[in-house]
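Quick one: structure for this chain?
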Amino acid sequence: MLVLPVYDRSGQQVGTYEFDLKELAPRISKQLLHDAVVMYQANKRLGTVKTKSRGEVAGSTRKLYRQKGTGRARAGSRRSPTRVGGGHAHALRPRDWYYRLPKQALRLATRMALAARFRDGEVTLISELTFDQPKTREMAAVLRALKLDGVRTLVVVDGYDVNVYKSTRNLPLAEVLPVQDLNALEILRPRRLLMTPAALDAVRAKVKAEQEAKRGGRVSAKILAEPHASN
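Got it. Here's what it folds into:
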């Protein structure tokens, strides 16, 4: 059982939050986390690189000089990759780097990444995080009080809050994401996580719903697989 202190906006502890870390993931697979992070990073690649082959560069295709009798090495077209201004021998072409891991694997990787952050003590809980209007100064003061200033931090909230987003977007080392947009890469990229208990409740509810849906699918498949008794 994991017991986490809950702080207010001034950095004072106002309570605790207790839950079983196995609710998120019974174990942590480094290989799955690696595969998920590599997939997300690969999908961000533009793949727009291109160079010209010898058939695309400008220049005549005639033989530069005769084959024999000149005392020099034989030479063909000036577009040859061995000559200055020639084309590339293995020209680069635009390509799509996109690929996708199974949906259940990515969901499990997200839960494992979050469990790893909790296990390593890299998550700070704040009792509430709301602003009447966008104020970057107030958000910076909150991070300073929680000793998160100067540290790359991901602020996780239970839903999209425009005031929280606008109060954080000008801070160079802080980002805001709602629970529904979390993935393994976004969780593992920063050094620390700042969450509200409501956001953690939303994560646990989402995990429970996914597990129940998965369990229901297994029961349905089992029922369909069972032979029906004949009358």
